[in-house]
Amino acid sequence: MYMNFTARNYNSRKCVYYIVIFDILINFEIIFVGCLGKKLGPRILGRRPESSVPEVIYQTLDENLGKNELQGRSDIPQTLEEFMTDMKKGGYDAKTFAVKLREMVTLMEQRTRMAKIQEYLYRHVASSSIPKQLHCLSLSLANEHTNNAAARLQLPSAELVPALVDNSYFHFVLASDNVLAASVVATSLVHNFLRPQKVVLHIITDRKTYYPMQAWFSLHSLSPAIIEVKALHHFDWFTKGKVPVLEAMEKDQKVRSQFRGGSSAIVANTTEKPKVIAAKLQALSPKYNSVMNHIRIHLPELFPSLNKLVFLDDDIVVQTDLSPLWDIEMNGKVNGAVETCSGEDRFVMSKRLKSYLNFSHPLISENFHPNECAWAYGMNIFDLEAWRKTNISNVYHYWVEQNIKSDLSLWQLGTLPPGLIAFHGHVHVIDPFWHMLGLGYQENTSFGDAESAGVVHFNGRAKPWLEIAFPQLRKLWTKYVDFSDKFIKSCHIRAS
Ligand SMILES: *[C@@H]1O[C@H](CO)[C@@H](O)[C@H](O)[C@H]1NC(C)=O
Ligand SMILES: *[C@@H]1O[C@H](CO)[C@@H](O)[C@H](O)[C@H]1NC(C)=O
Ligand SMILES: *[C@@H]1O[C@H](CO)[C@@H](O)[C@H](O)[C@H]1NC(C)=O
Ligand SMILES: *[C@@H]1O[C@H](CO)[C@@H](O)[C@H](O)[C@H]1NC(C)=O
């Protein structure tokens, strides 16, 4: 028998005591397995066992254990069964019995607490870690890259290189370390484009994903569209001298790892709610600190010859021809984005600056309005010419620095908060048709609404490549995955 504690009976110490003591009293026969809670427990048992229990047992059970008393101890029974076996061997007086019982129950409670924290963390990890199918895809493509010359094509081919800096093309940028996600964005973009021969898609990836990404796009041509695959370290600008984004990230990671005393100090607080602990641990996560996330603030430097481009996140699907984005009059603004404060969806479309920034902090309250509408990353038009006339990248780094100096008290997560600050006054609001958000937050998004949007964005936890995706919305994404492809098939990536 194993007492499987769950969150529901977290506060069930008394109940366990009753059951165990009662068990002992009825000749070591265990009659009751699960703990149904304080009230139900003793009532089922019929009578309260106090009358026949020595007083010393209650005294001992009421004393609290010191903080580290259980650490490193191997003599504590791990389960109720073990405890009973121990007791049956006999030779224990009432006091020893009570001490052992108290230790066992405390240990179980601590485990329950950790399990609860882990449960909350898992929800986060489930959305940020790489499922094994995607890992498999990356490995098999890397292998293909090594063994098959056709998987090592220069992308694009030499005669198309001039198009990369030609402003008569429609330039898109996608930064991703997820080959499958990138392939959906690319495929959906090109298939829906009216003049695909005018599309240039610049895919930026990291060092470890470069070969798999190159292999995928070598073997899955989207011709006549032009695809460039480049790792960050291939950019001249990146290898030349100081790269503020890397410096900032290094500092940020240092501050995060020591934030609130680091993860062990956070977990050590036994009075804090498991949910709050999980949230604090999450703030330390490197997920919020990847170069891929920060890179868009350096688009003018990464693409010095381009005047205008559209930046796409890898959790979007394009469902329409995006060339009209180039006809939008930006009125000198830098960033064409959808606003996120006026929709019906209370999860993602009710965001104002106060949703992201700490207005209790004077640096924020003195400079910004809490009720100003926020906007979204995911599908943005960037006018690089206008951008180069501003100080946006400096402002961004200035505020990232301020946040680090003030121990992450201006904002805690993500790259949107400093983006909201840096692009303040430089945003041109575009029609919500161009970017529908929230498909990874909640399933109430109607399929019909989503289907009729120009671009849908699976921002939020339920990414379409994860098991936790909302099944009816996932179809919008799987539509652009070829499940008969040999790489997809061999890695067991399935439509549902
Ligand atoms: C633990 O968390 C509680 C509840 O938030 C807080 O009041 C207390 O100061 C914390 N203790 C330590 C040692 O940080
Ligand atoms: C740009 O930002 C930097 C750093 O915040 C500042 O020193 C400089 O004066 C700013 N320049 C302009 C033109 O605003
Ligand atoms: C917000 O700023 C105030 C003032 O600096 C600070 O006391 C508080 O801890 C900050 N809140 C968060 C969540 O960091
Ligand atoms: C979805 O809609 C139902 C019914 O309108 C509502 O009860 C539920 O809270 C909604 N769920 C979310 C996540 O918005």
From TrEMBL:
Pathway(s) per entry: Glycan metabolism; pectin biosynthesis
Transmembrane intervals: 16-37
InterPro entries: GAUT, Glyco_trans_8, Nucleotide-diphossugar_trans
EC number(s) on file: 2.4.1.-
The entry's keywords: Cell wall biogenesis/degradation, Glycosyltransferase, Golgi apparatus, Membrane, Transferase, Transmembrane, Transmembrane helix
Any one of the GO BP annotations: cell wall organization
Keyword Transmembrane helix: yes
GO molecular function: polygalacturonate 4-alpha-galacturonosyltransferase activity
Membrane topology reported for the UniProt record: Single-pass type II membrane protein
Location in the cell: Golgi apparatus membrane
GO terms under cellular component: Golgi membrane
Group of enzyme by EC: transferase
UniProt similarity note: Belongs to the glycosyltransferase 8 family.
Protein name: Hexosyltransferase
Organism per entry: Glycine soja
